[in-house]
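Worked example 4.2. Below are the chains of a multi-component assembly; read each line carefully before continuing.
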Amino acid sequence: MTQAASAPLLSVENLSVAFGSNPVIHDLSFSAPQGRTVAIVGESGSGKSVTSLSIMRLADLAGAKFTGGRILFQGSGGDIDLLSISQDQARHIRGNQIGMIFQEPMTSLNPVFTIGDQIAEVLMLHENRSKPDALTEAERLLNLVRLPDAAGMLKRYPHQLSGGMRQRVMIAMALACRPKLLIADEPTTALDVTIQAQILSILRDLQAELGMSIIFITHDMGVVAEIADDVVVMWQGRKVEEGPVEKVFADPQHPYTQALLSAIPRLGQMTGEPFPLRTPLTVLEDGAPKLVGERRVQDTARMAEGPLIQVRDLSVRFDVKKTWLGRTTHYVPAVTNVSFDIHPGETLALVGESGSGKSTIARTIMQLNKPHSGDVMFDGRPMSQMGLAERQRLRRDIQYIFQDPFASLDPRKTVGWSVAEPIRTHGLLSGDREITRRVAELLERVGLPAAAAARYPHQFSGGQRQRICIARALASKPRLIIADEALSALDVSIQAQVINLFMDLQKDEGLAYLFVSHDMAVVEKMSHRVAVLYLGQIMELGSRAQVFENPSHPYTRRLLSAVPVPDPTRRPDRPALEGEVPSTTRKAGEEPVPVTLTELAPGHFTANT
Amino acid sequence: MSRFRSLEFILGAGITLVICGLVLASGWLFPDVGKIDLMARLLPPFQQAGHPFGTDPLGRDVLARAVAGGKISLTVGLVSVAGSVVLGVIMGLVAGYYRGIWDVILMRFADVQLALPFILLAITVIAVIGGSLTNTIILLIVSQWVQYARLVRAQVLALREREFVLAAQAIGVKNRNILFQHLLPNLLGPVIVLMTLNVANNILLESSLTFLGLGVDPTIPSWGGMLAEGRTYLQSAWWVSVFPGLAILFTVLGLNLLGDWLRDQLDPTGRTER
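Applying the procedure described above to all two chains together yields the following structure tokens:
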């Protein structure tokens, strides 16, 4: 590390950690200088979380063994080796001198206590304050993380707050005793991009105000570029690269870092391209980076043919409250008057934050929800007029891929059984031998060995499981595949491979995709046309170039500006984005106001607001 | 096969087989099971070659009765549990998966039944249809399927929201196949655990029915019946009730071990969830 004038606040020296006989961290060394942010980056299984838990001394409570090294921390009582102190002493340091925030703000707060009580508890425990005194301090802390109405917030319960607000409460709690070091373990991964931007800017401001050091653990290179001063890249339990953030991004030394950086979809990379582009990938082969795959313009959309799917004035509602006679008193208008077309061979992306209704639309097309009004037409036939047989036929022509590939595979069935299920359900092939052959063919098509058919889902990695789900979706030879956040749970390098698989399948099989995602950069890379949703209505609809290069609705611009840019030299000095997605529960009888769309250019629509 | 090479399976299957074998062979092993010999009342165990487990207050051989008593007890325990599992699982699956009116009817019915004390229900039913082995089993099934229905329904409510069930619906899999191919295998674990515990419970319930004169003919030996008889002599002649008690204990132990093994076999991930 280059410029730590004083001794670093925390230095990890030759740390090795093992679970049982299984080493997870090998000989790791890095340091966290005073007042700076160190980002630890890596994919799942790289050991980054175990590192943070080791610093907190929570790893050994979970059964880990420290097989070597030490962690020196400049505590209030001089230098101490965090690995050699007792759990009792560690407890005094945790929460007091080292604070931590976790990924899931909902599960880290106790649902039965008020926010005020939970923050006050920390203060009473570590600083021996009286209850009223602690509550006053809690209010100050909530103001510090810019929560509106801090005094009222003290009396509220966690379920009354949104995810972003809960994460701010977690930060307030972590800061309660003015820690010298804050460890943030994927604090924004579960949040929408706009909320993520808020949290990141709060963390940055607080660091400047309080002068603490931050260890920021993440898999998202965009977030790293935005917040970190120094970067430690971890891979398979080892540090493969370390340095100031500008240097690591501009001139990555290790092949793994190079592969990782090349795999990130970057917003704006497609500017000037009329169609999505399949690009070659840098992959590691025997430790050396290698460029694999072809570069191909994805002009597969057959716009001249009639639309495959036409969604017309679709509205979907969910009842939230009923009288005991079964009459609805409150409902959520999840989707209101949405219309769009998908042509054969085309990828249409639905983007928006959580609660925007994008998954609801996808599920309604898949017949998993019933529309309240409006209709979906397939090949020109309205779904509402289809008989049972025709609807069943539709379940063959449209296939769905879920976000979590593990949850969407039956854990008690072999992979081969699951992939064959659509074939058996629709009676596409007769005879076990033919089905087995087709399953093997499908698995090989998505890049898995045919022998995978005999194994169970838990024996595969996340990326492999998503390939299995894609194989299952292909089994019935569909014409439209709905991918509902299908890439969100995957590591970036795997994500890039799966994106290319999607594009190859589109070219070879002429598939149309409805691509539901919150990740703007991935959407830009993959889609022909884009629809931006907000609170169940379309705000902007147009070709990829129209929406991304010429965003005309304020919400689209806001969404685009919130995406972290994986380039540390271009840190956006964005104004603190404020505001939350409002709640949309309505009383029965109160109708949502549908927006009207104006056509700015051929095919480019934007909402009048 | 490696799946059979586990201590749970070897012990469980061994114990269960020995007990079942003895009980089935009891007519041939002990032809004079009910022979009363008032000269040999309450003989302590391990003293006379003819009565290794001692004798009861009427001079009957405890070993012979303990082995023969398994006929009634095992029949009642196993058949009533099997019956209530089949009924309860089907009801729970239907109520949990289809929801709506079926759910309301089945679950309110279950609530009403849970509110009625078992003995009251037993006295009423037996008074109407009379006491016999078959009627005892029917009564136990009727009073116990509710547990399984509620357990299964709760599991189905959780499972039906899981994505693999949604995925099956999206593919167009028939509801019947979703119920029996996806939901059932995923909820069998807790059902098996409850089953193995219930066998013991039902063996004892049969004895309390018999004790009240509502169950099987009291002159036919059963484990529960022997326990109840021996209770008054517990301080002076422990063997009268201890040996049938041990018979119940080993039966339950064997079935529990088998049940644990079976549950683990059904779970391909190899992790146990209870």
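Take a moment to check your reading of the output against the notes. Chain A is about 30% helix and 25% strand. Chain A has two domains: 25-262, 309-607.
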